[in-house]
Every structure is written in structure tokens, then in C-alpha cells.
């Protein structure tokens, strides 16, 4: 997978999960790619370090939910943050277990 393909998949997953500031996130990840490539890393190494675009999008979604919970401190926000974190943890556990 090249940089453009990675960013395209990440954008699709971020949009699906309704993560805000998609363009800002994509800009940050593109800059990360550029800096790492200037340091001599291959695109494959960078993609491996970042992980699957779907997983990275879920991490951004969990961070957003946690930030909202801290800002609002409402039970619904807290529950959403907890469920996002729990789902991400479960996915990571299953990934480690079966891969």
C-alpha cells in the first residue's frame, strides 16, 4: 500500500465513524509519512507502524469520545467514551490473540 492509498482508506474509515476534523487528521498523517520518508523509512515500515487504517480511525474515534466525555461530563458522553474504548480494546485483544 502506498501513502495515497493509506490516506484514502483512512479518510473513508474516519468518515464512516463520523470523526470530526478529518482533513486535519489526514494532513497530520501525510506530514508524518513525509518526515519518516525523509528519515529513510520505507512506506511499508510507516504503514506497519501506523497500523491498519481502520484501526487508526477507531483510535481517533475513541479519543474524540473521551474528549467529549471530559468536556460534557454527561452520562451519555461517558458511556459513549467507555464503549468506544472497550470496543477498541476488544479488537486489539482479538488481533493479538489470532495473529
Can you give the mean pLDDT?
85
Radius of gyration: 15 Å
Overall helicity: over 70%
- Please provide the count of β strands: 0
Order of helices and strands: HHHHH
Low-pLDDT ranges: none
What structural class should be given to the helix and strand makeup?
A: mainly alpha
Supply the number of structural domains.
Answer: 1
User: What is the end-to-end distance?
Assistant: 20 Å
Summarize the structure.
The protein is mainly α. 84% of the residues lie in helices and 0% in strands. α1 packs antiparallel against α2, α1 (3-16) packs across α4 and α4 packs antiparallel against α5.
Structural features:
99 residues, mainly alpha, 84% helix, 0% strand
Q: How would you characterize this protein structure?
A:
The protein is mainly alpha-helical. It has one domain (3-98). It is built from 5 helices and no strands. It has helices spanning 3-16, 22-38, 43-50, 53-72, 75-98.
SSE arrangement:
Blueprint: H1 3-16, H2 22-38, H3 43-50, H4 53-72, H5 75-98
Amino acid at each position: 500500500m502506498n501513502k495515497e492509498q493509506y490516506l484514502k482508506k483512512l479518510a473513508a474509515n474516519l468518515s464512516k465513524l463520523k470523526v470530526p476534523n478529518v482533513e486535519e487528521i489526514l494532513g497530520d498523517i501525510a506530514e508524518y509519512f513525509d518526515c519518516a520518508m525523509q528519515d529513510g523509512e520505507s512506506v511499508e515500515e510507516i504503514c506497519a507502524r501506523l497500523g491498519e487504517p481502520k484501526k487508526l480511525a477507531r483510535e481517533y474515534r475513541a479519543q474524540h469520545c473521551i474528549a467529549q466525555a471530559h468536556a460534557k461530563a454527561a452520562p451519555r458522553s461517558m458511556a459513549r467514551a467507555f464503549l468506544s474504548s472497550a470496543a477498541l480494546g476488544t479488537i486489539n485483544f482479538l488481533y493479538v490473540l489470532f495473529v
